[in-house]
Amino acid sequence: MDADYRHDNRDGVFSRAVRAGKRTYFFDVKLTRGEDKYITITESKRRFSNEQGKYFYEKHKIFLYREDFEKFMLGLEESVRFIETGELPENYDAEQNEIDFEDL
């Protein structure tokens, strides 16, 4: 890979913005120092601050690394399919999917 490309594009090599109602989702492909690609998914919502009397953007970001793509996509696809059809995935175990966030 060309050194100038690495230097100029370390923070981002591809971006896609998706407007969805009051939210905008940003899908950004970035490079690690080791030149591995990963995705950041940012949800941005415009909010009004009564205290400051002006608008600001509330942002939430997820970092998704290559080794997690398959599991992430499977979880997303199963969730969307459930919303669209109401059908649970095969071998679905509700107890297995309960997470105590205090343990994370």
Protein described:
The chain has a domain at 3-66: Nuclear Transport Factor 2, Chain: A (Roll). 23% of the residues lie in helices and 39% in strands. The chain has helices at 3-9, 69-85, and strands at 14-20, 23-31, 37-49, 54-65. Strands 1-2-3-4 form a four-stranded antiparallel sheet, with no helix packed on it. Strand 1 and strand 2 form a beta hairpin. The longest helix has 17 residues, at 69-85. Mean pLDDT is 86; it is low at 1-7.
Characteristic terms for this protein:
104 residues; alpha+beta; Nuclear Transport Factor 2, Chain: A; four-stranded antiparallel sheet; 2 helices; extended; disordered N terminus
Q: What sort of overall outline do the alpha carbons produce when their principal axes are compared?
A: extended
Query: Largest sheet, described in full?
Result: 4 strands, antiparallel
Radius of gyration: 18 Å
Low-confidence stretches: 1-7
Order of strands, widest sheet: 1-2-3-4
Q: Which fold name is given in CATH as the topology of the domain at 3-66?
A: Nuclear Transport Factor 2, Chain: A
Span of the ends, CA to CA: 37 Å
**CATH architecture annotation of the domain at 3-66:** Roll
**Number of helix segments?**
2
SSE sequence, one letter per element:
HEEEEH
Secondary structure: helix percent = 10-25%
- Quick check: average pLDDT? 86
CATH class of the domain at 3-66: Alpha Beta
**Class by helix and strand content?**
alpha+beta
Bin the strand percentage: 35-45%
Tell me the number of strands.
4
